[in-house]
Amino acid sequence: MTNAIVINTGDQIEVLSNGRYKSAWHRVLAREEGNRKSIASFYNPSYKAAIGPAAETEGGSEKKYPKFVFGDYMDVYATQKFMPKEPRFLAVKSL
After folding, report:
1. Would you say residue 9 has pLDDT above 80?
2. CA-to-CA distance for 78 and 53, rounded, in angstroms?
């Protein structure tokens, strides 16, 4: 889209929102005409931070993700980042 601003959310937002907001694979489609500008900005919590679905889920729905320590997730991510993301959530040790 012309003049669009795209914001890709990460896996932690997907977990915190209990799947309401999905993280996106980062993909770029280069085109011969025009140009594109990107600003990559990463914000991560402490490696000791506990990540899990928010205390209250929309409509009291079941929590779809385990609660885990962010550093443990990053250890799994480092070995599985080019694989489907869903198994990553299951591979992290739950709290």
Report:
1. yes
2. 22
Residues 52 and 68: their CA atoms lie apart, in Å, by: 6
Instruction: Please enumerate in sequence order all residues whose Cβ is within 8 A of that of 76, keeping only pairs 6 or more positions apart, or say none.
Output: 88, 91, 92
Lowest mean pLDDT among 47-51, 59-63, 66-70: 59-63
Q: Yes or no: say if 57 and 10 are a contact pair by the CB < 8 Å rule.
A: no
Alpha helices in the chain (DSSP H): 11-16, 70-80, 86-91
> At a CB cut-off of 8 Å and minimum separation 6, what does 35 contact?
none
Instruction: Give the separation between CA 50 and CA 40, rounded to whole angstroms.
Output: 24
| Residues in CB range of 71: below 8 A, 6 or more apart | 47, 48
pLDDT, position 57? 62
Distance of alpha carbon 31 from its chain centroid, rounded? 27
